Amino acid sequence: MFSGLIAFLGGSAFRMIWGEFSAWLTARQDHVHEIDRMRLQGDLDAAQHVRNMEVIKVQADLGVKTIEAQAEADLDRIAGGAWSALVESTTKMTGIWFIDVWNQSIRPMLATLAIGVVVAEIAMNGFALSEWDRELVAAILGIYTADRSLSKRGK
Q1: Average pLDDT value over all residues in the chain
Q2: What pLDDT score does 54 carry?
Q3: Less crowded by CB within 10 Å, the N or C end of the chain?
Q4: Residue 60 shares a structural domain with residue 102
Q5: Integer distance in angstroms from the first to the last C-alpha of the chain?
Q6: At how many degrees (to 10) do helices 97-124 and 131-152 cross?
Q7: Could you report the per-residue pLDDT of 3-32, keeping only the tens digit for each?
Q8: Predicted local distance difference test score (pLDDT) of residue 118
Q9: For 117-126, how does the pLDDT look when each residue is reduced to its tens digit (9 = 90+)?
Q10: Which domain holds residue 127?
Q11: For residue 129, what is the DSSP state?
Q12: Does residue 154 sit in helix, strand or coil?
């Protein structure tokens, strides 16, 4: 009977001690895993923060570049508009006859003079065109033909 009681208590006590030890060991492992998980989550959060900061920096740089490109485009548009207005103002009549005659004669006179200089220089070289002469003649033809075709289209 005594051995039965010891066997009964020994088995119950052993199971109780083993259960408590097992629960403590499991809780300890869970605690270690939780700490490791928290460290890993902290590392991941820090890495995510670095990536987010890099993204914000790149977006800011792109935003600055976009603003710079828009500003440059606006300046080009303003300069183009100013140039167009200037060119348009050269052909407006003032209503004062001698100023209008002068304005209308200046461009044709300068163009005729420039063409005369080019033809004289080509004639002095025996009508052999150098590379510079060919480029100059091409530019002159481009200006006059483009000017006429654009003015016909109303541009």
Answers
A1: 81
A2: 92
A3: N
A4: no
A5: 121
A6: 150
A7: 666 666 666 666 777 778 888 899 999 999
A8: 83
A9: 888 888 888 8
A10: 96-155
A11: -
A12: coil
62 shares its domain with 24 = yes
- Output the pTM of the full model: 0.36
The pLDDT > 90 percentage for the chain reads 19
Instruction: Please give the Cα distance from 8 to 128 (Å, whole number).
Output: 127
Q: Verify that 3 and 64 share a domain, yes or no.
A: yes
Q: What type of residue sits at position 50?
A: V
- One domain, residues 77 and 143: no
Q: 133 with 121: CB under 8 angstroms?
A: yes
Q: What is the CA radius of gyration of the chain?
A: 46
Q: Which of 90, 107, 123 lies at the terminal end of a domain, its last residue?
A: 90
Do 63 and 34 sit in the same domain of this protein?
A: yes
Please give the Cα distance from 80 to 153 (Å, whole number): 19
